[in-house]
Amino acid sequence: MGNISCDNQGKAYRALSMPRPNPRQRLFFQAKQKYVIFGGARGGGKSWAVRWKAALLCFRYPGIRVLIMRRSYPELLANHIHPLKQLLHGLADYNGTEHEFRFPNGSTIKFMYCACDDDLLNIQGHEYDVIAIDEATQMSEYQIKTIAVCVRGANSFPKRLYMTCNPGGKGHQYIKRLKDRRFKEGEDPEDYLFIQSLVTDNAVLLRQQPDYVAQLKALPPKMRDAWLYGNWDVYEGQFFEEFTDDPSHYADKRFTHVIPPFEPPRGWKIYRSFDWGYARPFSCAWWAVDYDGVIYRILELYGCRKDRDGQDIPNEGVKWIDDKIFSEIARMEREHPWLAGKSIQGVADPSIWAGAENGVSRYDVAVRHRVYFEKGNNDRIPGWMQCHYRLAFDENGYPMMYVFNTCAAFLRTIPLLSYDQHAPEDLDSSQEDHAADEWRYFCMTDPIQPRMAAAETKPGFDPLNQFARRRK
Global pTM? Predict the structure, then answer.
């Protein structure tokens, strides 16, 4: 964009020469939407665009307040503070105590980090006209939404939330939903823009480091697909990487695990699985099993605390006592038309048989409400393999399990789970794994064998004929 002449109240400053942005960066600079997501692959020039956008806004609007956030302060130093000190030398003063650039015209660029939920207290009550979250997928949906609330102010300045990101991380599923334009009530589609960024867009980087693409190609397949090609469907470390929600296959049920709800036929058996929680969420699910042994997650009761907008606060329980949990389960089984009058077999976390208070176990409380369980098999690795076997597609593209798209807790939490760094075959149990645990208990009640891998492009494959002979 050439030279930018910077001045304030008649005092001249040096001209600031801005390199020509690539086409994707230009879209980012020109975007007028309130929520702009600049994401895709590594090396797309996203952090550079954030720095320049923040500086340009401060020169253009005297008194504007801009905030740049990342997961850690060292990342802020390396990616933004040090480069901006060079860029803005003689144009703005940096206050190291306040972590803030101050411009002569009253504009400011402040820096804050958010490594955990407690760090959100540092931003509570603040107002900013523009916030840029760099590497937003490293933060959770709850953290991003809490930060977004601070974009406000009674002035005419632009109000923007900029998010740069790569596939993977705690915020992956939330950002992917916005990227796919699957908006929820209260989200105006006109407010959102996603700009895909790839390393091939960054000509400057490729000139300075011509072997960078080769380095990305040498990565493990899942990481390569995410970091080089910007594939948001999988990312390295995802525990259930085969889990797929593809609305284009909702009708034929091929190559998807998620389908719209329907009333299970009368002859299908109904099961219940349960994982207890108090400070963390409890999870209860009801499953229908068809005549071929395919399982359907049809309903769930998930004890997760909500925020003011009615959204789940990740991994925070509602703190219901045992009587309330099991009375609610019993009520649903009396009143819901899919469950009422059915013989329901239950399986639960073995810990509910342990004595809790005065020698009365949680299982004893459940029995008082006529909610019965068998002890779940808690062998973790075999249990996870049973989950993987159920997710696997056969040679025609059909899995052994489906999830109704109304089961919000399962759909939110399962794609985010990752491997334990210290136990490579196990899931990291520090995550929100409660729906996964009760699913695992259920799968272990009727173990199945591995299946032949799917081959969607198999020569001569006719999906219509295959579907016609399959279950409806």
Answer: 0.61
